[in-house]
Amino acid sequence: LRDGITGDWYVTPLPSAPHKLLSNPTVHLTNNTTQDWNILGLKGAVWQARLSADAAIAATAAADFSAKVWDTYTGECLHTLQHAHIVRAIAFPIQANPQVLATGGAEKKLRIFDLTRGAGGGGSSNGSSAPLPSGSPVQPGADVTSYEIGPGVHGGTIKSIVWNQDYNILTTAAEDRKIRWWDLRARNPVVEYAVEGTVGTCELNSLAVRPNDPDVLSVAAGKSVYLFDGLMPGRLLKHFNFRYEVASAAVNSETGRLVTGSAVDTWARVYDLHTGEELGKFVDILFPPLMARL
User: What are the distances in angstroms from CA 23 to CA 12, 27, 200?
Assistant: First the structure.
């Protein structure tokens, strides 16, 4: 995952073998120029890892029913956010020093954790964080207050959460084959879009070198890739159909390229973003679904 400011950092689950990508409870942090770190202390498979925009903290979603927040400089675990089932997705708002974290997973619940409230909150908000919804907190983690957004709406495991450039808007992708854009102020989805297959990935694609350009939300689902306007919830820009099951997709708007990872073979494929023409393919020696996201 690329840091939204420098473009230099990556944080991924560290595989012990290509077919066991999510089975090794270790997170690998790389700054791409100097040295690597491993974050230890996880007790279950790591389903997702995210960096804050300033790369100062990281978050992990794991099969041990927890999400954890880490200091990337010291490796210290700052928060353990306990859940009632497997956590599959996490997201920070796109800002330095984020004060909140969104989580989702097999509970089918979208939650917002306020990292400033509770015994382990650690400091107060600087006023730049996304606003928290009003109302009573539900099922807080070990040391942090949480709020559920849209109880009962998700019909399946939440597999991805994307915090939009507008801090009030979150996007979720779930196993009920629905992409939802949520307004945190209303706690309701403002747009829903049904896709034609099981969701593989849902990612906000942006270039660190062109931070003011509109982002593209890419969704891999079944044999299709959907590209949505990153600023206007639910606005579909392009829809590509393929002959294979797509596990992941990434877009580079500057070069006009779309890259996909397949769920059934070891090929990563590159396409012209505007025409859909296949420009080439290459074997990913690690794991195609992860490669396309990087």
Answer: 12, 11, 18
Q: What pLDDT digit, counting tens, does each position of 60-111 carry?
A: 999 999 999 999 999 899 999 999 999 999 999 998 889 999 999 999 999 9
Q: Measure the CA–CA gap between 235 and 275, rounded to whole angstroms.
A: 19
31 is written with which tokens?
Answer: 């700054």
Task: Please report how many Cα atoms fall inside a 13 Å half-sphere around the Cα of residue 198, on the Cβ side.
Answer: 7
Angle (CA) 125-131-133 rounded to 5° is 120
C-alpha span between 208 and 146 (Å, rounded): 31
Give Cα 77 to chain centroid, integer Å: 20
> What pLDDT, in 10s, does the model give residues 10-29?
444 443 333 333 344 555 55
Q: Locate 83 and state its tokens.
A: 């859940």
State both tokens at 107.
Answer: 């509970």
Q: How far apart are CA 128 and CA 59, in angstroms?
A: 19
Give the burial string for 76-107 (b: 16+ CB within 10 Å, else e). Answer: ebbbbbbbeebbbbbbbbbbeebbbbbbbbbb
